Amino acid sequence: MYVCLCNPFTDNDVNRHLSTTVGKTSVKEVYAACSGGEKMNCGNCACDLKQMVDGHNNTKTISQISQDMEKAADQVTLPQHEHV
Ligand code: FES
Q1: Atom of ligand 1 nearest to the CA of 43
Q2: Of 4, 16, 44, 77, which residue is the least packed, with the fewest Cβ within 10 Å?
Q3: Mean pLDDT value across residues 21-46
Q4: Mean pLDDT across the stretch 12-41?
Q5: In the chain, domain spans
């Protein structure tokens, strides 16, 4: 399905680009990558593109989740037992 008609590219093009993007990205960056460096014209595709980029930016990898859990575990203070 075409996402942008002004500088034609498809959802497959967007997904292919996002699958090789590490970390967060932006609509502007994805648009430039998928359109061959062209600037957005009418903007009718911006909403669909934003949803796809937001989906990518809000998805954490197993590795990221593991790192978040390790950071949280480091911040936990265990209670000290008193010896009587
Ligand atoms: S449809 Fe993408 S800029 Fe017009």
Answers
A1: 3
A2: 77
A3: 96
A4: 96
A5: 2-74
Is the separation of the CB atoms in 34 and 4 below 8 Å? yes
C-alpha of residue 3 to centroid of ligand 1, in Å: 8
Query: 55 alpha carbon to ligand 1 midpoint, in Å?
Result: 20
Region 47-65 average pLDDT: 89
| Bridge partner list, 2 | 10
pTM score of the predicted model = 0.74
Number of H helices, E strands in the chain: 4, 2
Q: What integer best gives the mean pLDDT of the chain?
A: 92
Q: How confident is the model at residue 84 (pLDDT cuts 50, 70, 90)?
A: low
Asked if residues 25 and 57 have their Cβ atoms less than 8 Å apart, the reply is: yes
* Cα–ligand 1 centroid distance for 52 (angstroms): 15
Q: What is the best residue among 1, 2, 6, 13 to mutate for testing ligand 1's pocket, by most ligand atoms within 8 Å of CB?
A: 6
